[in-house]
Write a structure and sequence with these properties.
two-stranded antiparallel ribbon; seven-stranded mixed beta sheet; alpha/beta; about 280 residues; single chain
Length: about 280
Amino acid sequence: MNRTADRIRAYYRNFDEWHRLVQDPYHELEIETTLHFLRRYLPSKGTVLDAGGGPGRYTIELARAGFNVTLLDFTPEVLEQARRNARRAGVSDRVREFVLGSITDLSEFESGSFDAVLCLGGPLNHILRARDREGALDELGRVAKPYAPIFVSVISRYAQLIDGLVRHPDGLRTDPAHHWRILRTGNYDGHRGFAPSHFFAPEELRSLLRKHRLKVIESVGLEGLAAGHIRVVNRLARVDPSAWRSWWSFHLATCGDPAVVATSQHFLVVSRKPSRPS
């Protein structure tokens, strides 16, 4: 696991995650859709854990909204970037801590510490062993207060298969086992450039959340029906802003459809901790 963890850290050490979500209108779909549903389910105030929060996009947005946020990430350089970003954004007073650690071990925090828990953008994808993913969900639930919302977004298994067809069609001939492995297991070893990952099917994640006694409230495809259509989306937003605003309304009306959730590049599952032990 240490070698794999080092590969994942190296990937994010050299990847510009801070700008990924805002580089163009297509990528903004992920963050804007996530924020839309955060606003729907977050309490009006309180403490939030941004677990695996990377360089701090969501931490800063929530701090601006008045929440007291703790950001945890396991790449030291990215955590330092988050500290600088929060300082530049003028929200350092609302960020309680920047913690170096993993979502599989939140023992630094007492049970029931947070009014909401976030695990966004795919940190759970990089937990490769099934028992460690179980442990991570146990921890995310443990540190949440009773009735607290828990938001988990991941990279979709089916979207990865579509991406393989569109971007790497030669692989279907030269390395068909890779595609079958993702379909059957969700597992990816990192040999095509991305960090080693486990890609989720929607019901797989929902079932894991239920197994850990969390009530699933809603599932959302973050790129929605636009998933994969980067050039079309960016052109529409640039050429016809009015049509793009219309598409946003249409996106919100369709992003919860199960087929849309499954084929979106990232999907979000909103769950809630019971108000008392089940």
